[in-house]
Protein 1
Amino acid sequence: MTDQTINTMTENDRPTKAALIKGFRCRCPKCGEGKLLRGYLKVNDSCSNCGQELFHHRADDGPAYLTILLVGHLLAPALHLTYVQWRPEPLTMFLAFAIGCTALSLFLLPRFKGAVVAYQWARRMHGFEKA
């Protein structure tokens, strides 16, 4: 490979892992400084820091699916273990797990949305290939 080919590859390279980390932190996948979301789940049209256009994203139901998948896989075994080990009162157990499920879901949902948008940016999907 020539030096020009190597330079082109580096300029066009968008590291997925770094973008996912920035997205999970709800930051711009390109610069890591600007806010990715305004409000709770609304993606900004562009980054306030670097100007990267973000309106191309197609996150759709992906973040909700990932949130349900992770929360379910974490809390279902915890629910079983709690019941087998301590046998708390049903209302106590319901309240504890309802609050835990709601809190964990509300915490993870915007972070997964940021990660999905960042993944699309890193893989040049849905209009992100132009920038």
Protein 2
Amino acid sequence: MRVSYKDAPRYLCDRKFKNMVDRICLSVSAAAVEEVVVQAFFEAIRPAQLDALEAVLVAQEKERRELFRHWDEKLKRAQYGVQLAERQYSLVDPENRLVAGELEKRWENALIALKEIQEGYRRFETAHYPVTLPTELKEQFRRISESLPELWQSGQLDNAQKKDLLRSLVAKVIVDRVKSDTLELRVVWISGHYTKLEVNPPIHRTRDLGEYEELAERLQVLWKEGLTEQEIAEQVSREGYRSARSKNVSAATVRDIRLQYLKQHPEELNLKTMRLGNYLPVQELAVREGFKVDWVYRQIANKRIKPEYLKKHPRRHSYLIQDNAELIAQLRQYWQRKEDWLAKRNSQI
């Protein structure tokens, strides 16, 4: 699927370099693709990789010379076929119309075949086919292979220079979305070979993660073991899980996933065991009053539920809210205002 090049890595996709990225998916994070391509480039310019590339290019040049010989022989055979068909046609008795017609047809077919071979030969001759790395360029790569990553990030290279460096080894980049949160990259080198890589770009929703169900189950296990949301976030991040827009899992993401999980598995919600005196867990208050759980958390974040009405559970470290009549009445008013506003807006649509 082709898309606007504004969605592709900025070093790879200016107007003079359009062909570098082929089949890039919609909503692809340019930064995620760029980072992986650049790291692959850094790996490719190491001395051992350059030696391997040089050997491949030398072998390809030998193959190209063999193909030239093949095309020469094929062209000569086609030219001889045209000459033979022309002589046969010129020698036939014009009175013998049946034979003359058949020989004329053979001559026309030979001319068509010759034209096709000539066009194919011309395309082969003009096709881009890197012979070898220039010695000067190869020596430059050897000298900067260790320092280039730091130089790349220093701001001393502009985008045009970075683009030229990438183009010296990279022919194009092919990007396919294989999962909602996974891209498959093929970095095609000038040798014709390619490196296959996977990228996990930022996505919009955590629930679209490929391992979302597994992550949700893991969070519940750790929660039952008594870990706090922050401790759970750190643990699952170490285990290799990620959130929608980050390589790590935050405490807020843990809370959101747990709330979504509890909606789908209400049997897991044992609220009474979390009460402390007249302090209720957020979920119990929300269920009792008909509020949405995330809305209650927003009231805490916005300080509408003041700190004096809040307490942290000593083991779970989750919020508990005082069952205070005045506070509950205020929350009901806030909730009703929101509902009235939504109803008014919907009536105007």
Protein 3
Amino acid sequence: MKLEHIQIQSNNIQQTALFYQDILELPIIEKKTNSITIKAGNSFLEFVENAVFKSIYHFAFNIPENKLDEGIQWCRNKVDLIVIEDQNVITNFENWNANAVYFYDNNGNLLEFIARNDLENSQTEAFSSKSILNISEIGIVNENPLELGKQLVAKHGLEFFSKNTNSELFAAIGDDEGLLIMVKPNRNWYPTQTPSESNKTKIKIENNGIIVDLKF
């Protein structure tokens, strides 16, 4: 499953453009008076301005499975990586066969670089913004994550993520390429103490050649 296009909100489009263009070095492919669209590998990330928006989103980018250490060094003078424990910034998701690091963008959104070993997407080139391969996860906040997941499976032919233990608190739809991460409101976004909130989100998915447009 591929997350082709994500549309979320920002209360400062100008600062958002500067962060993604100058800090993460991603190209802005479209600018409008109240929105910008950023190309992140094979995905598109669109921010729509909402001056009173005060909440945050959580989303992740896939990077090559062998480039996490290089990615950390690339980030060092750009963003403050979130320390997990004892100065370590790497989280090992053993069941998912993946490792990740976390940081914030200018909006306070929780971003993640995740290296998934089962994608077998190693690269020889030095890490750069081109190593950001695609949007791999977007967080969706819902009172009934498991029920929402069942509805998406039934309506759109999607599948629960086979590596995840899906529950009424936390459920994931998709695969290593792209995931909808569904959580209950006020569940802290790992690894922070920031509670999740339901925010307007539009998502375009490609799944087995079929395009699915979702609104939350």
Protein 4
Amino acid sequence: MDFGKVLAETFTNMSIISAITSTIFIILLGFILRKRNIFTAQFGKVLTKVVLSVSLPALAFNSFMAPIDQKTLRQGINVLIFGIVVYIVLIFVTKLMYLRYPKEKGDVLSVLTTFGSTTFFGIPIVSAIYGVKGAMYASIFNIGYRIFLYSYAYIKMSGLEMDKKNIKKMFLNPIVIATFLGLFLWILQPYMPQVSAMNVATQKMSQVAFYRIDQTALWLYKPLTYLAGLASPLAWLAIGSTLGEITFKDAASDKTSWYYTAMKVIVVPAINLVLLLILTVTHILPVDQVALATILIMMATPTAAVASSYAIGFDREAIMASNASLLSTIGAVVMMPIWIVIISIINATGLF
């Protein structure tokens, strides 16, 4: 294999380069606008609410408005299974990373390492590079993430039993509703009443399920498409605005946060890569190139906002959690292009 050729193809792939530069430039723009007080302290939070309650649900739902075939269905099931199993693995493995720390601090670091910002940071990048298919896999992968984030992470950080409020958050979250609704509609479409519709891409008539609004109701699909398109830029602006709130000098003086960042954006995705390689080669749980890339990008994300909020809200190493969130976000921005290059090299081997 010619690594030079692979690198050249990666760095001349405009979809990859434009996704990386868009991420960095728009995050930087949000940072500058916050530093200049054009964005207020509350503005980043407002953007976050818009993204989480409107744009990402629209993106999740729209990603399932696609034809179904056995190969994609199998991949989706494999991604779902892996997305559940890997969090069980990480819950135990991340504890080993922090054995030299006091138990309470180690527990907090373990939770922060297990749960990344897959929704807010990962999905926009995946959808920008890998399109609708990547967004679909990302939404399916996040099912396991949300199950453990609102159960295990909450119990571990609060020291309390699971309460009704968190169960409600888990199942009534707009993104979860949109994901499950889209997933069920996607799977059931061969068994639903079919109608003739003009395929916008091919300009040919085809038979589709009556609820395939991308073909049967463009007047409804288009508004959702515009809302979904806001997810990436608004999320990146909010990330930049949040970074503008924290003093880098204070965060950089915390050695623990540097160690955590290395574990979060380098070691955790590497663990996922090894597991996926083993499962694919042995044909136990094989994934294709897009699924591999989606999972690695999702796992190379910085601290999850919810996990960080748990630490702050329950006063569990709150300052360290804030520092770790800042440094891991910067680390993720630096490492994301590197991981994308690694993914391109792996794909060139033909293993996936």
